[in-house]
Amino acid sequence: MKSALWAYNQAQWALNQLNAPRGTRDRYKLIGKKDTRALTTVYNGNAWGQRNIALPWFWNMAVADDSSGSTYMEQVYRVNWLRAKARYDRWSEEHLLIPNKMNWTRLYFKSVCGKNWPSRPLKNL
To answer: How many CA atoms within 13 Å lie on the side-chain side of 81?
Structure first.
C-alpha cells in the first residue's frame, strides 16, 4: 500500500512539474492518510458514527468497468449510494420541517403568553 501510494503521489508531483492542464491536475489530487482508511461501511454497516462519513474523492472517479466482476466494488457503490440517498432524504425533511417548527414556536408563544409577552420583565424569565 505504501509503495503504491508513493508511486501515485510521485506521478501527481510530475504532473505539476510538467505543467499539465489544470483540469488534469485538479482531477488527480494528492492522496493522504485519511483517504486510505478502511471502508468500514461495507463489512460493518451498522457501526456507530458512520452516518456522515463520505468516501474519499478517488472512489467517485468514473473508471470504466471498475465494478464489473467485483462483488466487493458493487457493494461499496451500493452502500455509498444508499447512504447518500438517506442523507438527502434527511436534509429534505429538515428543509421542510424547520420553517414549520419556527412558525409553531411563534404561534405557541403568541397563544400561551398573549400580548403581554413583550412587556414582561426579563427577571421573571
So the answer is: 6
